[in-house]
Amino acid sequence: MNHKLMNQKISLLILLFAIFFGCAGPKQEETPQRPNILFIMADDHAFQALSAYGSPLAELAPTPNIDRIAEAGMRFNQCLVTNSICGPSRATIFSGKYSHQNGFIDNTAGSKFDFSQNSFPKELQKNGYKTAVIGKLHLGGTPTGFDYSDILPGQGSYYNPTFINQEGQYQMEGYTTEIITDKTINWLQSVKDSTQPFMVMMWHKAPHRAWDPGPNELGMYENTTFPEPESLFDNYETREPASLNYMSIADAMSLDRDLKMTDQPRRGLNEEQLKAWNAVYGPIYEKFKEENPQGKDLVHFKFQRYMRDYLSCISAVDKSVGKVLDYLKESGMDKNTIVIYSSDQGFYLGEHGWFDKRWMYKESLNTPLLISWPGIIEAGSVNNDLVSNLDFGETLIDIAGGKVPADMQGKSMLPILKGETPADWRKAHYYHYYEHPSEHNVMRHYGITTDKYKLIHFYYDMDKWELFDLEKDPNEMVNIYDDPAYTDVQADLHKQLEELRVQYGDTDELNQKFIEEYNEKVKANPGIEYWKPVK
């Protein structure tokens, strides 16, 4: 037989054998590619100012780009914070721990986050993620856990901001919201072709006080009249701690710094920016002086000015989100990128007559949370579980394929994102606020929130309890703690509260230690006016 012909037949048999057994044999599964993570956070963005939440206010000032995240993913209706104030909230997100465990309990001078402790960015790095933070961090010190950081020092400024990166401090000209956006897109471009998954935090300064609109948003709502909340003139009947506040629009919101009703030039603006600024605010101020509103008329005026400026700042944030989402889509990165939008806490938009946050009442306690994840989260889904900023870090570690450290106190929301709430998910959420005495005179308090009730204990400078029926009184106007009809409810809530305090390691002895340390800080800063009475 011809050897050449025989060799060809053997080669053909080998090929057929390989094809047959290659097809018939077990299929090798590819390792799924881990998702990229884009974590967007605003500062003091109230859920009432997001049209995805259906607020009448937001209907007049919609947020169509941020809403895209909700439309493509999940909206959380009950995302609650552990301590409603900027730095401590961020520290909780980083550490996955309550304030009394991570050591960052208040925003007073000298407060710094201990970056030597573990954090979710460090855990993501361990699991092969490239990490970056751009924008407002507000934790003091030098951030760790990041391959790249480019952050504002402290609160930062709205115009012509200073930044700090690994090479040092420098200043840029422009509007901070837009600068942070462009920096984020530039960083995304730098990792576009990398096989390494990434997590980037685009954390905005806006819409933090004093609500300076950008050059593209100046005057955008001057012809809009926003609806006032029913409780704008709340008299705090049955709620003594609330009656002692100094955070009302009527008393604490300044006409010059906050509402721009002054003939003094806005600080930090260049000549061109100042010209555009004065063209808008100059005529408004002249009309204000001419009309000279007083009493309730002045409160009405201040509320409208507050909303017009605050919502203009949010419009710039919404455009920022749209620009980044568009880049993800154009680059093809959107198909494997989780997008998270949240705020460091909620905020008052005139409810109870207030601005700011701090309280355990709804508008301060509830923060917006929207998450999209193509192929995993059902588009347009809505969740009503009690989730928390305490859970953010644990969730991202779980998504990255890491093991959540045992000392982190939150829970991974990964099952919830997949539409499968665990049977043992929390039924009550614990809260603790520490910063008193302080500029807004919000008393120290802790408490729990369930689907139906809220129990609060004001424990320093007073010993007061408050109980609210959230189904009958969703605006938390009537304290029913002494109502005999709620005796059993009260007893059950007290039991749950003590169980949570034990679970999270919060004690009266620890609170006394924090009080003594805080009072020493107050003594060391005599130039700071820490408390102002309402009257």
Description:
The chain is of the alpha/beta class and 535 residues long. 35% of the residues lie in helices and 14% in strands. It has 15 helices and 16 strands. The chain has a ten-stranded mixed β-sheet, sandwiched between helices. A four-stranded antiparallel β-sheet has the order 13-14-15-16, covered by helices on one side. Strands 3-12 form a two-stranded parallel ribbon. A hairpin with a 3-residue loop joins strand 14 and strand 15. Helix 3 crosses helix 10. The longest helix has 37 residues, at 295-331. The radius of gyration is 26 Å and the shape is globular.
Number of helices: 15
How much helix, percentage-wise, in residues? 25-40%
Instruction: Tally the beta strands.
Output: 16
Q: Extract low-pLDDT stretches.
A: 1-6, 13-31, 530-535
The coarse silhouette is globular
Largest sheet: 10 strands, mixed
Give the radius of gyration.
Answer: 26 Å
Report the β-strand fraction as a percent range. Answer: 5-15%
Question: Features of this protein?
Answer:
alpha/beta, about 525 residues, 10-stranded mixed sheet, about 35% helix, globular
Quickly describe the structure.
The protein has 535 residues and is an alpha/beta fold. Helices cover 35% and strands 14% of the residues.
Layout: helices, strands, pairs:
Blueprint: H1 3-24, E1 36-42, H2 56-60, H3 64-72, E2 74-76, E3 79-80, H4 86-95, H5 99-102, H6 120-126, E4 130-136, E5 148-152, E6 162-165, E7 168-171, H7 176-191, E8 198-203, H8 240-243, H9 271-291, H10 295-331, E9 337-343, H11 362-365, E10 369-372, E11 381-383, E12 387-388, H12 392-399, H13 414-417, E13 429-433, E14 445-449, E15 453-458, E16 464-469, H14 487-504, H15 508-524
Parallel strand pairs: 1-8, 1-9, 2-11, 3-12, 4-5, 4-8
Antiparallel strand pairs: 2-10, 5-6, 6-7, 9-10, 13-14, 14-15, 15-16
Helix pairs in contact: 3-10, 6-12, 7-10
